[in-house]
């Protein structure tokens, strides 16, 4: 686990907290084909990338596949990262999240539905997940920030982000009127954003 | 219409279905407020990943590093100039802007590669010595590749694993000539197709795929944009 580092003044927490090297610099080097820069990038973010993939996809083997695909996509698009549009970590986790969501949705749409359904209902190893996550001060800050959301906002956001469900599905799952889950998700994200001070 | 802004949060966490997403991405091209909001909400959503940090197996690192050694990073995006002039093709600048915004916001990319080596019209185009291929990958693993041969004045689209268009709709093909999108045919149903585009491919600047109501005839795109291909770097 990375030791917790102080956040440099003026730098949003997503940009540097508990991540050593400057990810934006590494991405720039990757865009020019620098494989050792990518190895450094991997070491800095792999636990986040993998953790997110596991949380969404659940099946460990499929989660690693998703992480592997996402890393390849990150490499291919590294020269297109624009620091003016957001943080490196935000950018690359967006890629990972999209891949993970695509995987759970396409798995459900395919004939493998039954098998995957059972896989997805295997319990995730919450102990090791929690252990790793506990080490991060950032994780505690995020959990605290999530506590400031209303229960419906938090549930809607988590079902969408971690569950990979569409806002329409979330509305049905939470017995919300059609069209209101998207508002809860948005409100929850805004609260989280403002509490954590990210995204300018 | 104004209601579409409310989709920003669901979009930021990938909680839109494919049609909603295509519509919202088109909206993003014209709405700076939403672009900024999506960017900031994505930062917020990425924070959630801080609560699930889990180291992968050691083998993943080796596989990832082996993967990237075989692929070159994509060139930076150059957004075509779309300012000025309006006219009959007025919808198209919006399409270009939409595509640029989508590429910038997501990661989708246009990859090109050259093939070599020679049967049907489609085969001839694909195997022409000046063939250029433009591939787009879609969520879920679908791909669409357009191969253009200027010498043969032809373009071929090959799709793989394309999800069906929504009920009552079809994928429509377009060739871009300056600011006009000219109809180039309709894709047959089916996930895997090889179709020769009708029209003047040699002078086209690009191609597009939209979702249009089946049976309706349009002389310019009206439906959601699925993909755009730019023939010039």
Structural class of chain A comes to: mainly alpha
Element string of chain A (H = helix, E = strand): HHHHHHHHHHH
| Shape call of chain A | globular
Structural class of chain B: alpha+beta
Give the SSE string of chain B. Answer: HHHHHEHEEEEEEEE
Count of spatially separate domains of chain A = 2
- Large-scale geometry of chain B: globular
Largest sheet of chain B: 5 strands, antiparallel
Distance between the termini of chain B: 35 Å
Low-confidence stretches of chain A: 1-19, 111-131
With helices defined by DSSP (H or I, 4 residues minimum), what is the helix count of chain A? Answer: 11
CATH H level of the largest domain in chain A: which superfamily? RNA polymerase sigma factor, region 2, helix turn helix motif
Q: Work out the count of structural domains of chain B.
A: 2
For the largest beta-sheet of chain A, the strand count, sense and barrel status come to: none
Mean pLDDT of chain B: 78
Question: Which band does the percent of strand residues of chain B land in?
Answer: 15-25%
Radius of gyration of chain B, whole Å: 19 Å
* Count of beta strands of chain A: 0
Task: Give a verbal description of the structure.
The complex is a heterodimer of chains A (200) and B (233). Chain A has two domains: 1-132, RNA polymerase sigma factor, region 2, helix turn helix motif (Rna Polymerase Sigma Factor, Chain: A), CATH 1.10.1740; 148-200, Arc Repressor Mutant, subunit A. Chain A has helices at 13-16, 23-31, 35-57, 60-77, 88-109, 113-120, 126-134, 137-147, 151-161, 167-173, 181-196. By secondary structure, chain A is mostly helical. In chain B, helix 2 (18-30) packs across helix 3 and helix 2 (18-30) packs across helix 5 (91-105). The model of chain B is unreliable at 81-92 and 103-118 (pLDDT under 50). Chain B contains six helices and nine strands, in the order αααααβαββββββββ. Chain B has two domains: 2-51, no CATH class; 91-230, no CATH class. The two termini of chain B are 35 Å apart. The radius of gyration of chain B is 19 Å and the shape is globular. Helices cover 28% and strands 25% of the residues of chain B. At the A-B interface, helix 3, helix 4, helix 5, helix 7 and helix 8 of A face helix 1, helix 3, helix 4 and helix 5 of B.
């Amino acid at each position: 686990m990375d030791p917790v580092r102080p956040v440099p003044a003026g730098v949003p927490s997503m940009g540097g907290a508990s991540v050593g090297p400057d990810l934006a610099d590494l991405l720039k080097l990757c865009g020019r084909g620098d494989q050792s820069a990518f190895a450094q990038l991997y070491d800095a973010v792999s636990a986040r990338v993998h953790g997110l993939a596991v949380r969404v996809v659940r099946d460990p083997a499929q989660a690693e596949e998703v992480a592997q695909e996402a890393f390849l996509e990150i490499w291919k698009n590294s020269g297109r990262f624009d620091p003016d549009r957001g943080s490196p970590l935000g950018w690359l986790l967006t890629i990972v999240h999209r891949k993970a969501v695509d995987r759970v949705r396409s798995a459900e749409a395919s004939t493998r539905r039954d098998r995957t359904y059972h896989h997805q209902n295997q319990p995730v190893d919450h102990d090791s997940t929690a252990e790793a996550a506990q080490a991060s001060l950032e994780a505690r800050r995020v959990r605290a920030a999530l506590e400031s959301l209303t229960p419906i906002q938090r549930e809607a956001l988590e079902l969408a982000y971690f569950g990979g469900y569409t806002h329409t599905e979330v509305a049905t799952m939470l017995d919300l009127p059609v069209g209101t889950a998207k508002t809860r998700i948005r409100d929850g994200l805004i609260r989280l954003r403002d509490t954590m001070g990210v995204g300018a | 219409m104004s209601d579409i802004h409310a989709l920003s949060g669901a979009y930021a966490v990938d909680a839109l279905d494919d049609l909603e997403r295509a519509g919202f991405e088109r909206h993003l091209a014209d709405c700076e407020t939403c672009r900024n909001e999506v960017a900031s909400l994505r930062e917020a959503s990425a924070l959630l990943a801080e609560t699930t940090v889990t180291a992968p197996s050691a083998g993943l690192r080796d596989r990832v590093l082996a993967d990237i050694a075989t692929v070159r990073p994509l060139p930076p995006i150059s957004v075509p100039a779309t300012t000025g002039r309006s006219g009959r093709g007025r919808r198209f600048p919006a399409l270009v802007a939409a595509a640029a915004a989508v590429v910038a916001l997501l990661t989708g990319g246009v990859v090109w590669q050259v093939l070599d080596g020679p049967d049907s019209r489609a085969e001839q185009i694909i195997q022409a010595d000046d063939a250029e291929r433009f591939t787009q990958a879609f969520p879920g693993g679908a791909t669409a590749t357009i191969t253009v041969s200027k010498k043969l004045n032809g373009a071929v689209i090959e799709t793989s694993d394309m999800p069906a268009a929504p009920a009552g709709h079809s994928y429509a093909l377009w060739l871009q000539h300056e600011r006009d999108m000219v109809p180039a045919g309709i894709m047959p149903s089916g996930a895997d197709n090889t179709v020769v585009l009708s029209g003047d491919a040699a002078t086209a600047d690009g191609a597009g795929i939209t979702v249009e109501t089946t049976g309706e005839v349009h002389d310019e795109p009206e439906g959601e944009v699925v993909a755009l291909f730019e023939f010039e770097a």
